[in-house]
Each structure stands twice: as structure tokens, then as C-alpha cells.
Amino acid sequence: MTSWHHESPAAVLGELGVHKTAGLSSREAAERLNRHGPNTLDTPPGRSLPLRFFDQLRDPMILVLLAAAVLSVVASGGEEWVDAIIILVIIVVNACISIVQEQSAEKALEALGRMAAPKAHVLRDGKSAHLSTEELVPGDIILLEAGDRVPADARLLECSALSADESALTGESLPVEKKAEALLPEDAAAADRVNMVLSSTVITGGRGSAVVTATGMDTEVGRIAGMLLTEQSTETPLQRKMAEISRSLSALCLGVCAVVFGAGLAWGRGMLEMFLTAVSLAVAAIPEGLPAIVTIVLALGVQRMAKRSAIVKKLPAVETLGCASVICSDKTGTLTQNRMTVVESLVPQEGQRSTALTIGALCSDAVLGDNRRTASGDPTEAALVEAAARDGLCQQDLLRELPRRGELPFDSVRKRMSTLHALPGGGVRLMVKGAPDVLLPRCISLPGGGALSSQRRRDVLERGEEMAGRALRVLAVAYRDLPSLPVRLDPEELERDLTFAGLLGMMDPPRKEVKAAVAKCLGAGVKPVMITGDHKLTAVAVAKELGIYHEGDLAVTGADLDFMPQALLEADIEKFSVFARVTPEHKMRIVRAWQKRGHVVAMTGDGVNDAPALKAADIGCAMGLTGTDVAKGAADMILTDDDFSTIAGAVEQGRGVYANIKKAIHYLLSCNIGEIVTIFCATLLGFSHMPLLPVQLLWLNLVTDSLPALALGLEGVEQDVMRHKPRPANEKLFAGPFAFRLLWQGLLVGGVTLAAFILGGTRLAGPLQSAEGVATTMAFATLTICQLFHAFDVRSEEHSIFHIGLLSNPAMNRAFAVGFIMQMLVLTLRPLQRIFSVVPLLPMQWLAVFLLSLAPTLVCEIVKAVKNRSRA
Questions:
Q1: d(CA 707, CA 85)
Q2: Are 678 and 783 spatial neighbours (Cβ–Cβ below 8 Å)?
Q3: Are 9 and 155 in contact (CB under 8 A)?
Q4: How far apart are CA 785 and CA 749, in angstroms?
């Protein structure tokens, strides 16, 4: 690839075979168009709706459900299809919800195409013409002026006061001043190539001509599009957890079924009978409603976050936020306002700030808007006009009092600009602004007539250097009163013997709410990291102010990263808090280095240059107001208020969503373990019949279990959720305390169910009742009601239900009421009694059912109380 920025304009023209004043001929342009292709970006092949639907069916839990549907048919001897149909309906509904909620990140590439300018001003056949940007080819001569969007990468040939806004592509917060004559090192970063203009950037001032060096996918923006095409979506922690659950359940089903089948044969039971029993047990072990419940809980999380200005495009991204341990944030427009602002001033004497701001507002081509608050034009000049307006010095009013009579435009040689204004009492005032080191040597006096001594001048220059050291852009302002408007505007003659009026320091200031959000993230164990295309000094200054950069932290530039092997970057990544002057490739390396160290990475950004890293991160967060369409398309989440603090709130919500999903899994699996224990023990103990029938198990799994599990998804976020460190992404769901809780609580549920079964078949059976029917009915009733009570206990792992409020979750109250009523109808209405093979119960039997049903919840509450007391 040719380093066009390293060659002179004449050399570039020679290599591209084009004349500066004539451009390409139409014939040559057509040949090059055939050779290079149109000036457009490649797009990925779209996936049809059926393919997206089948993608949803590849989920491991869905495969387990499909197996359950087949097994339920086998268990009924092929005569009962209702169970299988219900499971298939759940699978289809689950897939449809996911497809409706998710949006493809490939929209980013469509947005990249829309960013291209529709027409380009080109020299063809020696004539000026406006052509579609798609027709541009390497070698075309393009003409540029303020307001144009650059149609392709090009080497400047000539320019006058040309500047370009490259913030969306490079992260540079200020317009870049261009120089056609500059020769740059071959390894100069895109942000430093001042003799080039880049496709999709905007010309903010001046005019110039350039020769196209790259089009389409060969441009800088094309390279970003290529990275988006090749970058694969990462598997979310929740998807890994669900795969883990599927594998564990599959192993559990096979193991338990094999043991039960073998034990039954050992007891002398028939092979077909034990096969059907084993299949029933497999159906009992699988929580058929879990995938739908997880999807619905995620969808509810999406709705909650949308109310808090965070739009989530992909459902699993909600939970991913909850385990984010690193937030890699772009600086410009994300942590800062992307608007230059005067934040500091130095004037000779107190009360003379208005003089300095008046010069800043009048010696400017920026224009104050009708709202008298915001200005349009060059960002630096707009900052001066807005600062004056905030102090009550409206630019329009000043111009009426001091009308402009002449101008000496800014140029890169003089490094200053001057305007001439008529004074009300006669005469003219020359107002000058420029770099302090250039302007101060031309000042000889202070307002009021005092002389500017050499010592005072050195003091002001030192103060200016100190301000610049804090990443402020510093301008000096001065003036000179003349008796009349000069006939000849000679800069060297006019811009001397000036009166120094002050220094004005500007920066792109941090957003007001960001510092508190950063502190909240740090308190939650989440490390914010700044990744920017801006200069290192500026980035570190902003990072220090926000609390991102601390004593002992390191900052590194893109040039440093070029010489740093990826293995070394991965080893030292946790030492860095600021990455400055980086390219899109650097951002992806940084994200992957954090991921290699086991971190879950959230990446925020708003520019085109952020898009590849947004897509590579575990969760990409784009800014909704200032973000480009490209960034929004590549991201998983869009912040509609561009507020970094929304991310902290989203992390909190993400943790709450994961906690609720974990509670639902806890509830469903502990209940299913109870069912497994019941059937497993009944088989091993050689009971004459099973405590639970297949139709009762399916009723429990699809109806009674699912309603409370859904209600658990509506639990509010617990108050202390942001006081804990993020969980590791590779943390096993079934490791440690969680698996132990599932086991002993499942054993409790199964134990009381077996107790009810035994009591119903022996001591509590009435003289006119079938002992077998009473035993099965009491087991079914106890298991169902026990699970409904148990749902209240699962609402918090640490806190008592009385601490969080017994009835504080209205959804749980409704779920309990509906589930209880439905179960009572099954147990008391004759038509339903026949369907579910249950019999009416006597009062003593009902009392035993309720006492046994309450036992696991009481035990769980006692265990929590003991644990909390031991912690205290």
C-alpha cells in the first residue's frame, strides 16, 4: 500500500498518471472504474427470516426441550400429543420473541454507505463537473470547500486555510488544519496525516484541491467497514450459562434415568414399565418453561432500561452488562461534551474579563445563534463567542456598537487573526487573537496605559504554558486603537504595539454527570478506561479530572502500541487507564487484551472509528444523540441521552436482571430436583405405584412453576447490588454455594412430598378412600403448594422475605393467587380430578398438606437468619 502522505504532490500526480489542471479523461476514468470498482462499501449477505428462526433453535436448551417433546410422546406410547404440542409452542414463541427484539449490527455498514457525499466536485476532461461519488476513481482531482463531505481518501495538492472535522473517524476533538506541502513519515497515523483528507470527514473551513488516492473499501472508512464484516459476534455470559444448564440437565437426566431403569429391573419390574418411568423422570427433570422465562425476563429488563434512556438491541446484552468489569470509553462526545468551552481566563486586572471576551467575540467568524447561547462555526471561535454571551456580551449587540470595518484572516504562518472595528467616538480599534508565544512579543502595554514589562510578559507566558500543560487550548487577545481605518491592511505594520487584554483557556469539558458515574462504577468494581484518538496530554488531563486516571496508572499512545507485542499488551493491560492517539485497530487490540485477561468488556463510543471495537466488545454502547449511525448499528445498546452515567445505571439493571434470572433458575431447578427426588426415591424404595403421574409433572412444570418464576423476573433490583464486585464471566453457575442450595432445598421439597405420599397411603387415608388415590393426591397437592410458598423464599438469597417485604412484589402475589386457585380447581372440580387422577381430600389431610408445604420455606428462612447473624 503506497504511503501517499510521504510523497510530494507532484510525485503523487506522476504515480497516478493525472494532470493537476485537467484531471482524468472520461475514457481513462471509465477504465479505472472497471479496474477498481465503484466508490462504495461492501455489505454482508443478509440472512433470511427462516434462517434467523433456525438460528434460535440451535440453542442447547432448545435442543433439550425438543428431546423432551419426543420423550413425552414416547412416554404415552404415542397416544398423548398434548404435552409435546405445548412444548413446541413454547419453543416457537421463545424464538419469535428473540427475533422481534434483536436487530442486526450489519446496519452499521448501510450507515457507512449513507455517510458518503451524494455528489463530488471533480475535474474531468479539463472541466469542472459534479459527479456521483460512486463514479470517483483513484487519480480524480476533487475540489473542496467549507461544508463539503470528503468523498474519498485524497492527497492535498493545494489548500488555503483548509480544515477538516475528523472527530468521527479519528477521535480528534478539534478540526485539523491541513497543509498540502507537508511531507510526513511513512508510519504517520491517520490522525496525523495533515496533507491528506479522509473519506466521510467534513471540511469546516477554507478551500483546496486534492487527488483521489483510494476509493471504496481501500479508504480508511473502508478498512473499518472491512473489520465490521470480519468481526464475529461474541457469546454472552448468559448464553454460556444456559449452555452449561443444558449440559448439566442432559447429564442429570441420563444419569438418573439409567439408575432408575436399572434399579427397577433389579426389583423385578418389567422393562417397558421402567422405560416409561425413566422417560417420565426425564420430562420431570427438564424445566420446559425456562427458555421462555429467561427470554421474557430479559425482555422485561429491556423495557426497564428503555425507561432509563438505554435502548438494548439484543436481549442477552441486558445480562452481559451485569458482569461487565471494564468499561472502555471513548473521550470525545462520550466523557466530554464534544464542544470547546472557555473554562479559564487570565486578565491584567480584575474587572477586565469583559474586554478580553469582547475581543474574542468580535475577532471571530463564528456566529451566535438566535437563541443567544450557542454559536456556529469553528469550534474554538464558537467557544469564545459563547463565553462572551454567557457573560452578557451578545455578539450581535457588540457588532451594532462596534461594527466590523476590516479583517486580517488567520493563517498558519502568522498564527493570529485581526479585525478592525469602528469606535463610537471616532477612530478604529484593531482586535487581535493568536498563540501567546506569537502575540505577547507584539504587546507593549496594558489596559489603562501601563507598560507591559519584560518580567510581566514572562510571567504571562509561564502561566500560559501552565494552562497548556493542563490540556487547555490557550489564546491571547490584544488590541490597538488607531485614528482611522488604514488604507492598506499590512499585518506587520498593524499588528504591533498592542495592548495585552488577556489569556483565554479552552477545552472540550467533561460532562457534568460523568465524574459521579465513574465513582459509582469504581465502587461496583468496574474499571473505566479511556480510549481516544485525541492527544495523550489532553486525554490524561480529562481522565484525572474524572477520576479515571490515578497515581501509579499508565497512559500509552497508539505509536507505543505499534511497537508493543499483543502478548505484552495482554500481560500489562490492567496497568493502563488511558490509551491516546489510537486507531480502530488499536481499539480492537485493547478490547481483546482485556477479554484475554478474563474481563467482560463494555465499549462506549459515538464515532465511525469506534464501530469495530463496539462490535468486538462483549457489549457495545453507542451514543444516541451525537453518535453516528455506524456506531449505533454496530452497538448492542444505545444511550438515548448520551449520558455516561446511564451506563452505571444500566450496569445496575443488568446485575438485577441476572439476579432475577438466577432466582428463576434457582426456583425451577430446586422444584424439579424435588420432583426427581420424589420419583427416584419411590423407585428405589420399591413403592407399588409412582407418587406423581406424567400429566401432573407437566402441569407442575408448565403452569404452577412458570407463573412464580416469571414473577421472580419482576423483582426490583436489590439495594446492595452495586456494592459487590462483578462476577467473573467464566464463573460456573452450578459451582459452590448455589449448587449446594439447589441440592438441599430440592431434597427438602422432595422429602416433604414423599412424606405426604407415605402419610396419605397409610395413616391419613380414610376408611372409604382409596389409599393409592389419597397418597398420589396428597403428594401432588403438597408439591404444588410447597413450590408456591418456596417462590417467596427464593426472592432473596441473603435477606428474609420479611426484610424485603412479604407482599412487596405485586407480580408474585398475583402468581401465587392464580397458581393456588388453579391448583385448588384441579383438586376439587370433578372433571379436572378425573383428568389429573386425584381424589377429594379430608380436612385432616388438607392440614397435613399445608403444614408439610410450609416446612421448606420455614427452614430456608431459619438458615438465612443464622447466616446473617454469623456475618454480623
A1: 19
A2: yes
A3: yes
A4: 10
Amino acid letter, 694? P
Question: Taking Cα atoms as reference points, which of 670, 712, 699, 716 lies closest to residue 822?
Answer: 699
Contact 10, 4 (CB under 8 A): no
Backbone angles phi, psi at 77, to 5 degrees: 70, 20
**Which residue carries 421474557 as its cell?**
296
The three three-digit cell numbers of residue 816, written as one number: 401465587
Backbone φ, ψ for residue 48 (5° rounding): -70, 165
By DSSP bridging, strand 202-214 and strand 637-639 are: unpaired
Residue environment code for 666-691, b if the CB has 16+ CB neighbours within 10 A, otherwise e: bbbbbbbbbbbbbbbbbbeeebeebb
Give the type of residue at 428: V
User: Other CB atoms closer than 10 Å to residue 147's CB: what's the count?
Assistant: 9
Determine the Cα–Cα distance for residues 610 and 168; give it in Å rounded to an integer: 8
Show the cell assigned to 580: 491516546
H or E stretch covering 639: strand 637-639
The rounded average pLDDT for each run of 10 residues, N- to C-terminus, in the chain (872 residues) is 83 90 90 90 67 67 64 57 64 62 42 53 89 90 86 90 80 78 80 87 86 90 74 59 69 74 73 65 66 75 80 76 88 81 92 94 91 87 94 94 91 86 93 94 91 93 91 93 90 93 93 88 92 86 92 92 93 94 86 92 80 85 76 80 80 85 86 84 77 77 76 82 77 75 90 92 75 90 93 87 86 92 91 87 92 93 86 65
CA angle 287, 288, 290 (to 5 degrees): 70
Count of CA atoms in the C-beta half-sphere (13 A) of 438: 17
Q: Which long-range contacts (CB under 8 A, 24 or more apart) does 413-416 make?
A: 414/438, 414/491, 414/495, 416/495
d(C-alpha 515, C-alpha 521), whole Å: 10
Write out the E strands in 790-841. none
Cα distance between the two ends of the chain: 67
Q: Which three cell numbers stand for residue 535?
A: 492527544
The burial of 88, by beta-carbon neighbours within 10 Å (0-12 exposed, 13-18 middle, 19 or more buried), is given as: middle
- Phi/psi for 254 (5° steps) reads -65, -45
Strand intervals (E) in 87-134: 119-124, 127-132
Torsional sign, CA 330, 336, 341, 343? negative
What is the C-alpha to C-alpha distance for residues 646 and 641, in angstroms, rounded to an integer? 8
In 783-796, which positions are buried (b, 16+ CB within 10 angstroms) versus exposed (e)? bbbbbbbbbbbbbb
The C-alpha atoms of residue 392 and residue 107 are separated, in whole angstroms, by 45
Is the alpha carbon torsion for 671, 677, 680, 681 positive or negative? Answer: negative
Integer Cα distance of 312 and 103 in angstroms? 9
- The three-class DSSP label of residue 23 is strand
151 near 201, Cβ under 8 Å?
Answer: no
Report the DSSP beta bridge partners of residue 209: 143, 158
> The dihedral of CA 202, 206, 210, 213: what is its sign?
negative
Which amino acid type is present at position 166? E
Separation of alpha carbons 667 and 665, rounded Å: 5
Report yes or no: 225 and 41 within 8 Å, Cβ to Cβ.
yes
DSSP code for 145: E
What gap in Å lies between CA 29 and CA 216, rounded to an integer?
A: 15
Answer for the pair 210, 155: CB distance below 8 angstroms, yes or no.
Answer: yes
Q: Do you know the residue count of the chain?
A: 872
Q: Which three cell numbers stand for residue 41?
A: 462499501
Task: Tell me which amino acid residue 850 is.
Answer: F
Reading the block at residue 477, the C-alpha cell is 487577545
Q: Which DSSP string do the residues of 317-352 spell out, in sequence order?
A: HHHHHHT--EEEEEIIIIIB-SS-EEEEEE-SSTT-
Residues forming the active site: 330
The residue to which cell 493542563 is assigned: 470
Between CA 810 and CA 68, with CA 751 as vertex, the angle to 5 degrees is 70
Q: What is the pTM of this model?
A: 0.68
C-alpha cell at 601: 468488556
